[in-house]
Specification:
about 270 residues, alpha/beta, TIM Barrel, 8-stranded parallel β-sheet, globular, disordered C terminus, binds zinc ion
């Protein structure tokens, strides 16, 4: 059993094929899926998907690509959405100094504000950090983020940065790039990270793992990332699957499932 802790099921190319995508995920043992909000409309769509499917859970938040000053209206709506029972985390939020779609000061203040929203909602955070490691770390420290907890999604730093994130009490979430031949730095992180602090994600529809690299990604492909990490650590796949599932359940407070999943959650 596996948990895809980060994907974007509401993106057009995944929505169109939703039934098949969920069936293929179930077939390889991906029994719980967290779909991520990146602005208000996608946050609402994530919640709707979770309401309609027992194995899907949602997050809400404003991605650094969409960073803005939060008006009191937006702030209120985030609080309202965040209280829905299907919402298991706040994010993805963070800094993206690679694309730089929004001015850095705006990204920084938006991250600060949303860490406060997450704190009010008592939700762990999902952090997007692209080429902004030190800046993200500094803000998480300033905000005492260890009190909130969370995951560094699609982790992309080296082991030295990884240790600093682990020191904050955060989990490292590993995505498809760990399967790429040139990803030695990330593979080293996946090898060294304590197993009880590791999460798996696809970030679908992006970043499909080998042997699906270049294709449209989907939660079922999580199995390839899990297999890669198992082989890097010289562990049976079952052990990596079981421990990362326990980690996801602990951080995001997901219920146990016994293979029947849907409809039982609200009973
Ligand atoms: Zn991201
Ligand atoms: Zn994402």
């Amino acid at each position: 059993m596996l948990v895809d802790t980060h994907c974007h099921l509401d993106f057009e190319d995944l929505v169109a094929e939703q039934k098949g995508i969920l069936a293929r995920a179930r077939h390889v043992g991906v029994q719980q899926i967290i779909t991520i909000g990146i602005d208000l409309p996608t946050s609402r769509r994530a919640i709707a998907l979770a309401e309609a499917n027992g194995e899907i859970y949602a997050t809400i938040g404003i991605h650094p690509h969409n960073a803005c000053a939060l008006s009191s209206k937006v702030f209120q709506e985030l609080l309202t959405l965040g209280h829905k029972s299907q919402v298991v985390a706040y994010g993805e939020i963070g800094l993206d100094f690679y694309r730089d779609y929004k001015p850095r000061p705006v990204q920084i203040s938006c991250l600060h504000e949303q860490l406060n929203v997450a704190r009010q909602l008592e939700l762990p955070v999902v952090i997007h950090d692209r080429e902004a490691h030190e800046e993200v770390l500094q803000i998480l420290r300033e905000q005492k983020a260890w009190e909130i907890g969370g995951a560094m999604h699609c982790f992309s730093g080296d082991w030295s940065f990884a240790k600093k994130c682990l020191d904050l009490g955060f989990y490292l979430s590993i995505a498809g790039p760990v399967t790429y031949a040139k990803a030695q730095i990330l593979q080293n992180v996946a090898r060294q990270c304590p197993l009880d602090r590791l999460l798996l994600e696809t970030d679908a529809p992006f970043l499909a793992p080998v042997p699906k690299r270049g294709k449209r990604n989907e939660p079922a492909f999580l199995i390839h990332t899990a297999e890669k990490i198992a082989s890097l650590r010289n562990l049976p796949l079952e052990e990596v699957a079981m421990q990362t599932t326990l980690n996801a359940r602990k951080l995001f407070k997901l219920p146990k499932v016994d293979g029947k999943t849907t409809s039982e959650r609200n009973e």
